[in-house]
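Session log. Operator J.P. requested a structure for one protein chain; no other inputs attached. Running the standard single-chain path with token output.
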Amino acid sequence: MSIKRWFCVSVLLGAGILPGAYGADLSDLAFLPAAKQLVGATSFGYGTDSGDLDDASGSRVSARASHEQTFIQSFDYGIGSRLSVSATWWHTWTTTHYDFPGSARTEDHRSNTQLMLGLTGRMLDQEHHGFDLDLIATVPGTLSLAMTRELQNVTIRASGGFYHGGGGRGFDLVRDMDIDVGRFWGYDAALQGQLRLSSAISLDLAVQYVSSNVDNARGTADGDTFTVNFPDQVNFGATLNYQMIRDRLVMRLGGAYQILGQRRDLYADPALDLLTAPRKRRSVGLGFLYNVHGR
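Structure written below.
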């Protein structure tokens, strides 16, 4: 799972980051662990994705259809009333079918594991300033600000920041080969709302934009070097939260719909350029938030 893919998962099920101001409800958008409180998040997701890869003349090089299963485990610990640290581990299993003109269908099975560490600091709180302002940093690669405002039965959260990715070799699902990609950066912005339907049930709605890489990402495959322009994406998510045990255990059921733009692999010889058609990705997930220690 890439940094950009992880953004959507965190918006969908809140896995890996639990930012915001202090609150007792684990599913509240304005939740931050109290001092010495340990909170866990476990989620399972399934998603589908498909698209074509075309050459510079517009002829189809291959057609791809992917099915991905994801398991995410995270823990968030409150160092103090305004600071928490988090660790997120996820594993993905991906099955991809490729259709090449004039040849039989091929199938590829891949798995991938990643670890992300995070730090959340509350700079301002709603009690004294009318809203909560959090600074969130993760390794590898993200830095963002989140502003949260709690009303009687509604919570609004707006966030934005930067991501940094690349810098390694890995399997590219689009091209069905291993490629090296240099470092690159981009930005994202998200708006989330939470409506409390009852004391135990709430509904989250989210929309998020993740930019393409702002600078040029250099890629290498089969000894040839090219420039990669990754696609912009717009993500929509909805999650239903149910407090199974008040302030101790929350079940979350969510879905996401992603619209991805066109990716371009640009060579020195334009005749070698490759591009993907805009595509859509759908995913569903089941998650649990639970208080492990403290509070």
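Operator note: The first helix runs from residue 3 to 13.
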